[in-house]
């Protein structure tokens, strides 16, 4: 699958501020004249948004890890077919709040070791990694306080508590080491403007090197 566009993802634990940073980067790149699509997972296309409600609402034990993996992958496939791939083919910059690295962490690590299944299914059904992944790294205690402060109904994962978030943080840092070519780590404990400046620097460096 070859594409003319750029595929940038944001990853991090719940409450790391990545959604805000994804939006700020989209605004910034639009100001510079780029054609940008800002999207998120799970979701991003009408079908995938319906699956989002299934996976994020309800009891933490509503689905087994395996079922969840299939649902997230189904949502991603639809998102890829309907939104991401067409935008890439049109030469746009796609910025996505979470992508397959979240599945590698949340479904791959949280309840048993399903990482090999996650990777196999990804290769079979998605077959594409981001060009650049920005990891907003921060202390889970801080992140969880922010996430809980939002008090939404999408709390299945946030309900897993701080032990899981610790594990996720370490897992994301390990993933960054596993895929050093595309991962860039940013300190999310700084104020929003400082994080945003770091994000812009990383994005600019990627875009200039890919021309
Ligand atoms: P998100 O809407 O990004 O929440 P937040 O802004 O709080 O980070 O993601 C919702 C939840 O979905 C989050 O707890 C992580 C989880 N998730 C998975 O478990 N697997 C996945 O593949 C994705 C994309 C998200």
Give a description of the structure.
The protein is an alpha/beta fold. The chain has a single domain, classed as P-loop containing nucleotide triphosphate hydrolases (Rossmann fold). It is built from eight helices and five strands. The chain has a five-stranded parallel β-sheet, sandwiched between helices. α2 packs antiparallel against α3, α3 runs antiparallel to α4 and α4 packs antiparallel against α5. It is globular, with a radius of gyration of 16 Å. The structure holds thymidine-5'-diphosphate (TYD). Thymidine-5'-diphosphate (TYD) binds next to α4.
Spans with pLDDT under 50 lasting ≥5 residues?
none
CATH architecture descriptor text: 3-Layer(aba) Sandwich
- The SSE string, one letter per element, is EHEHHEHHEHHEH
Name the CATH homologous superfamily: P-loop containing nucleotide triphosphate hydrolases
The computed structural class is alpha/beta
Number of domains: 1
Distinct small-molecule ligands in the complex: thymidine-5'-diphosphate
Terminal residue distance: 19 Å
Number of helices: 8
Major sheet? 5 strands, parallel
Task: Name the descriptors.
211 residues; alpha/beta; Rossmann fold; 5-stranded parallel beta sheet; 8 helices; 5 strands; 13% strand; globular; binds thymidine-5'-diphosphate
Write the topology of this structure:
Blueprint: E1 6-11, H1 18-31, E2 36-40, H2 46-56, H3 65-89, E3 93-97, H4 100-109, H5 115-125, E4 132-137, H6 140-149, H7 162-178, E5 183-187, H8 192-210
Parallel strand pairs: 1-3, 1-4, 2-3, 4-5
Helix pairs in contact: 1-8, 2-3, 3-4, 3-5, 4-5, 4-7
Bound molecules: thymidine-5'-diphosphate.
Thymidine-5'-diphosphate binds near residues 56, 107, 147 and 157.
